[in-house]
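Database export, one record per block. Field names are fixed; values are copied verbatim from the stored entry.
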Amino acid sequence: MWLERLAALTDRLWLPPLRFVVGFIEALGQHIMLLFSVLRWSLRPPYRIAVLLEAMVFIGFESLPIVLLISLFVGAVFALQLSSALRTFQAQAFTGATVGLALARELAPAFTSIVVSARAGAGMATELGSMRITEQIDALATMAVNPVQYLIVPRVIAGTVMVPMLAMLFNCVGMLGAYAVAVGVQNVDRGVFIEKAQWLLDANDITQGMVKSVVFGCVLTLIACQQGYHASGGAKGVGVATTRSVVGSFVTILVLDYFLTDMWLTLFTKKG
């Protein structure tokens, strides 16, 4: 009897981690296969420019208001906290430089990607999931239209192009918010704010953020499309696919952010 209980307890302890590992490997393989499929079909005609432009409007232009609003307050709050902390060391002059560095390297690409994932990524997963449940994707295949080329390729390209553009706007508006708070509220000298920001920021910082934005834009759209494209189980399955899309995008963006930062610092930071 005690052996059976021990065996049951052992199963409960090791089966969940094993299922997680197997599920992770399976999901990673599915995303890699979809990426190769997207790369292959993106080079083949017909090139669906109208569908691409529609996806760019949905991912980029329609996400613009929320991105600008969040960037304004992210810059403002960061400057408020930072200037208050730097006042202790008589270093308020470096508020603009530090905010600009944080925005360019980390905050702009990460926050922009998370916002786009929550808004556009969830929408894409829901749309594709609904099309899968209602057999519209099967109908495309029946009409000799490749579903990956028609539905996924334009969205992935649009995400890869539009997220860096939104991230650059996030940088600019975030710095405006930081400037308004630092100069108008914390009494930082406006000339010093701009001078220190120009002194510390360089092309390497901007490039690092843009590279991250390109990777994040591709990844978040790929995850959203994969989850929606393979949705099953009716309306509940569409909801599950949307949730997995958003959560998976958030986690992947943050994990990739660490590894991309580490790689960038290793390759491009000058050794003392």
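Remark 1: Residues 47-261 form one domain.
Remark 2: The chain has a mean pLDDT of 89.
End of record.
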